[in-house]
């Protein structure tokens, strides 16, 4: 409901009765009339620019995104109404309930313009929500006009608030159920299209729409997984006639498998075996291999807590790791290398046997060589994956000689200087991880005298001291500080002559926690 404003000429006449009438007019809006007006179709020719206008040119996915946008607005408004109600801002409560009423009616009408075969349960929810939304502003308007809400009786006000809150809760509950039904219904339609379509174009269109839905969040991924999305997508990946759709299908699978329901479905349909077959089949395109690597990276992510059931992964791990190393070696772009190296990095967390396999495959040599190619390892994100692999492999004694031969200490030294060029928060975080993991790798490898000697000759000690003493050099990261202190102490044992006395007294000799507290309390001007 637009707020009313007086014409400029009216401001010269200060008439209390007119002003009071203007204030009351806002609250006397006939909600039913507003809803009817809001629901009337508008000519497309006259309102082509109207963002809430749905026409046949929109795809199902466009319509759903518009619907989700409207749903977000309604949810936000319901929350704000509750907040205003607590503050007794009755005029705002009334105007906002009218606005929510219009949004709900519009959303229902918009969905009904493009939905197919909606269920009886959905129709019933539509009616219930509409009734509640009409009742809410009407009741508040009645309370205001009857001056009930101006009473000083706390019990009456408390009872009124309780009644309104109860209605708001009911609306929110039914509205949530309606959105769940709508999304489930549309996911079912897309999956049915994938299953039954004999047209390559229609199948590709349905997969594309499904992928777009997965980008709306984990909740939609759960719905898709529960409705058999993982099963349908792997059916596509097992049919040679759909080879051109493999990259798109695998990208969608990677998104769906970010939730536990997707992972369980993947295990049930032997998805790991299918991914291994794709990765080891040289007849597939690099794009297909890269997207398969992305699925592997997703399902082995160390941030997920539900990977324990992937027992079949261990059975196929050697084949998968071998294929991923080859993909890293032959990558034609930074994106392909990033996906393959991310999968390898996650696998090294997933099972320690992976590090031994990588060592046998000369993976360290391949990764170190890739880092010298700025067209392949071209972002902090890629270097983060490489140094993660090096850090996890560095627990093996045989890694020290590989590092020396591949000029790896020089690379680790360069990574200690990693800084973001854009200032983007995600890139800054990636740079911090690169600094931290390179320091961790140095600390682990410096148990070997040859590596420690190489690190000292490359002036790693002064750089570690700088990172400890200068918060800006490490972007105020505590994790980088701890890793640098540990690496410095390890190198100091191997080469005590490389430190000045003040550095030794403050950064090496005290307990680690005392040195940490000293460095975190340092002022930049003191350095």
UniProtKB/TrEMBL annotation:
<dbReference type="Pfam" id="PF16748">
    <property type="entry name" value="INSC_LBD"/>
</dbReference>
<dbReference type="InterPro" id="IPR045789">
    <property type="entry name" value="Insc_C"/>
</dbReference>
<dbReference type="InterPro" id="IPR016024">
    <property type="entry name" value="ARM-type_fold"/>
</dbReference>
<dbReference type="InterPro" id="IPR031938">
    <property type="entry name" value="INSC_LBD"/>
</dbReference>
<dbReference type="GO" id="GO:0008356">
    <property type="term" value="P:asymmetric cell division"/>
</dbReference>
<protein>
    <submittedName>
        <fullName>INSC protein</fullName>
    </submittedName>
</protein>
<dbReference type="InterPro" id="IPR039921">
    <property type="entry name" value="Inscuteable"/>
</dbReference>
<dbReference type="GO" id="GO:0045179">
    <property type="term" value="C:apical cortex"/>
</dbReference>
<dbReference type="GO" id="GO:0045176">
    <property type="term" value="P:apical protein localization"/>
</dbReference>
<dbReference type="InterPro" id="IPR038205">
    <property type="entry name" value="INSC_LBD_sf"/>
</dbReference>
<feature type="domain" description="Protein inscuteable homologue C-terminal">
    <location>
        <begin position="70"/>
        <end position="527"/>
    </location>
</feature>
<dbReference type="Pfam" id="PF19427">
    <property type="entry name" value="Insc_C"/>
</dbReference>
<dbReference type="InterPro" id="IPR011989">
    <property type="entry name" value="ARM-like"/>
</dbReference>
<dbReference type="GO" id="GO:0000132">
    <property type="term" value="P:establishment of mitotic spindle orientation"/>
</dbReference>
<dbReference type="InterPro" id="IPR000225">
    <property type="entry name" value="Armadillo"/>
</dbReference>
<dbReference type="GO" id="GO:0009786">
    <property type="term" value="P:regulation of asymmetric cell division"/>
</dbReference>
<feature type="domain" description="Protein inscuteable homologue LGN-binding">
    <location>
        <begin position="13"/>
        <end position="57"/>
    </location>
</feature>
<dbReference type="GO" id="GO:0008093">
    <property type="term" value="F:cytoskeletal anchor activity"/>
</dbReference>
């Amino acid at each position: 409901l637009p707020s009313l404003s007086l014409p400029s000429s009216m401001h010269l006449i200060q008439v209390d009765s007119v002003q009071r009438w203007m204030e009351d007019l806002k609250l006397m809006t006939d909600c039913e009339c507003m809803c009817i007006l809001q629901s009337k179709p508008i000519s497309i020719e006259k309102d082509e620019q109207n963002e809430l206008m749905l026409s046949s040119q929109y795809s199902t996915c466009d319509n759903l995104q518009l619907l989700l946008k409207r749903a977000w607005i309604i949810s936000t408004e319901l929350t704000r109404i509750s907040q205003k109600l607590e503050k007794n801002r009755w005029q705002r409560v009334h105007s906002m309930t009218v606005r929510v009423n219009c949004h709900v009616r519009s959303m229902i009408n918009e969905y009904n313009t493009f939905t197919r075969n909606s269920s009886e349960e959905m129709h019933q929810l539509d009616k219930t929500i509409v009734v509640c939304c009409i009742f809410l502003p009407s009741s508040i308007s009645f309370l205001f006009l009857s001056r009930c809400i101006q009473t000083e009786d706390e019990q009456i006000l408390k009872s009124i608030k309780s009644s309104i809150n109860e209605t708001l809760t009911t609306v929110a509950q039914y509205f949530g159920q309606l959105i769940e039904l709508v999304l489930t219904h549309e996911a079912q339609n897309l999956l049915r299209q994938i299953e039954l379509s004999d047209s390559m174009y229609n199948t590709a269109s349905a997969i594309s729409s499904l992928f777009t839905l997965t980008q709306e969040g984990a909740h939609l991924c759960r719905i898709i997984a529960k409705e058999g999305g993982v099963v349908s997508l792997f059916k596509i990946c097992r049919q040679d006639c759909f080879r051109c759709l493999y990259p798109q299908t695998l990208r969608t699978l990677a998104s769906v498998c970010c939730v536990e329901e997707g992972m369980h479905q993947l295990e049930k349909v032997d998805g790991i075996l299918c991914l291994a077959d794709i990765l080891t089949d040289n007849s597939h395109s690099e794009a297909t291999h890269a997207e398969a690597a992305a699925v592997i990276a997703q399902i082995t992510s160390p941030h997920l807590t539900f990977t324990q059931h992937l027992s079949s992964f261990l059975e196929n791990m050697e084949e998968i790791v071998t294929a991923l190393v080859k993909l890293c070696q032959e990558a034609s772009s930074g994106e392909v290398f990033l996906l393959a190296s991310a999968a390898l990095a996650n696998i090294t967390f997933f099972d320690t046997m992976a590090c031994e396999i990588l060592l046998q495959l000369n993976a360290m040599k391949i990764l170190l060589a890739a880092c010298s190619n700025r067209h392949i390892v071209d972002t902090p994100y890629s270097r983060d994956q490489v140094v993660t692999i090096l850090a996890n492999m560095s627990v093996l004694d045989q890694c020290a000689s590989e590092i020396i031969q591949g000029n790896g200490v020089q690379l680790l030294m360069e990574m200690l200087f990693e800084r973001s060029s854009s200032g983007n928060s995600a890139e800054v975080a990636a740079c911090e991880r690169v600094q931290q993991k390179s320091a961790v790798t140095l600390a682990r490898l410096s148990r070997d005298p040859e590596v420690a000697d190489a690190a000292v000759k490359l002036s790693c000690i002064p750089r570690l001291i700088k990172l400890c003493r200068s918060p800006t050099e490490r972007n105020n990261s505590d994790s980088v500080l701890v890793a640098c202190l540990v690496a410095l102490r390890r190198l100091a044992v191997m080469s005590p002559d490389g430190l000045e006395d003040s550095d030794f007294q403050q950064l090496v000799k005290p307990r680690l926690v005392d040195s940490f507290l000293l460095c975190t309390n340092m002022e930049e001007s003191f350095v």
